[in-house]
DNA sequence: CTAATGTTTATGGTATATCATGGGAATTTA
DNA sequence: TAAATTCCCATGATATACCATAAACATTAG
């Protein structure tokens, strides 16, 4: 199979007036092993953009084919939404992509974008929204796992 | 899969003004069997940095990859938290990595770092914090000793 | 048992390559 | 033809690779 690739880390980049934004170099070197483009779509659950190599969506599609209809109806609807929304974005020689108005609006991004690694995929956030979301997630995770408490004052 | 590797021992190294620090040679020789880089992230439970080979996170990603979990909220949160924080660190020919400000701050490390082996992964501590933590752990273990039974067949 | 020697490891400094980003030219679309 | 989009080059900032020195360690000879 292909090399291991994981999108990691959180990177802040600028978005210029044309909607151009640099894909973090780490992300690029991952994608380049496969192609020179990524797929982006509006997150179904959050005010952010999701991105991934096309391979991931292919896998999603083939998994849908082989799963039982009985259980997959709801997911079938969701995949329709994703595939209906997804679009390929090629990055140029300097490593930038041009995000569409639709995506930027959904994520409420104007001049700054935060790239957040998610393993096989990544997300693009408005800085303030991401700050809130990260805080929410940390609180949520700590609540669900009382044993995971940080020592007082040790929070990031 | 891969050979089994164990990070062991406790090693103290200096951190220079740029955040550069030598990965202990024992650790390096372990990692080198696979690649020339490791992954580091802020510990969820302690004021320290955790490190491991990328393979460890690979497995986590593989689990998330299955389409059945593609839309799960909890996994969504977890991947954001873990992969959003983790970062790959390549060490150069002299065996050093450059830790980021975010990681150093979380672990309260300024000019000295303590590497603590933890088996499949390792931790990086501020010296004073590690001294306290080690004392705490020892006290804890002694207190709980009567109930420290291994599952049958799970002995080292 | 001690001293000398060679080898690996840690650390400091500097040069180089890479990356993010802005501006503008060329090309396409309406 | 006007507007928008894509492509290409320039630049400053940053991070990485490289070289040199110093310290720790192990080995071997005396």
Characterize the structure shown.
2 copies of one chain form a homodimer. Chain A is of the alpha+beta class. The first copy, chain A, contains 5 helices and 8 strands, in the order ββαββααββαββα. A 6-stranded antiparallel β-sheet of chain A has the order 1-7-8-4-3-5. In chain A, strands 2-6 form a two-stranded antiparallel ribbon. In chain A, a hairpin with a 6-residue loop joins strand 3 and strand 4. Chain A is globular, with a radius of gyration of 17 Å. Residues 147-156 of chain A have low confidence and may be disordered. The A-B interface holds A 4, 6-10, 26, 44-45, 56, 59-60, 63-64, 67, 75, 78, 116-120, 123, 133-134, 137-138, 140-141, 144, 148-151, 154, 156 and B 39, 42, 44-47, 54-55, 57-58, 60-61, 64-68, 70-71, 73-74, 76-88, 102, 105-106. Chain B binds a DNA duplex (30 and 30 nucleotides) through loops.
């Amino acid at each position: 199979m292909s090399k291991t690739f994981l999108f990691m880390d959180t990177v802040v980049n600028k978005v210029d007036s044309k909607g151009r934004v640099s894909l973090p170099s780490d992300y690029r070197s991952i994608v380049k092993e496969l192609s020179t483009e990524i797929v982006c779509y509006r997150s179904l659950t959050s005010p952010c953009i999701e991105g991934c190599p096309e391979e991931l969506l292919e896998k999603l599609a083939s998994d849908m084919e082989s799963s039982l209809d009985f259980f997959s109806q709801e997911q079938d609807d969701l995949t329709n939404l994703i595939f209906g929304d997804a679009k390929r974005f090629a990055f140029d020689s300097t490593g930038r992509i041009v995000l569409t108005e639709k995506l930027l609006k959904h994520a409420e991004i104007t001049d700054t974008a935060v790239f957040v690694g998610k393993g096989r995929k990544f997300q693009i956030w408005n800085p303030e929204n991401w700050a809130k979301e990260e805080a929410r997630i940390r609180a949520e995770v700590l609540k669900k796992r009382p044993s995971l408490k940080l020592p007082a004052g040790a929070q990031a």
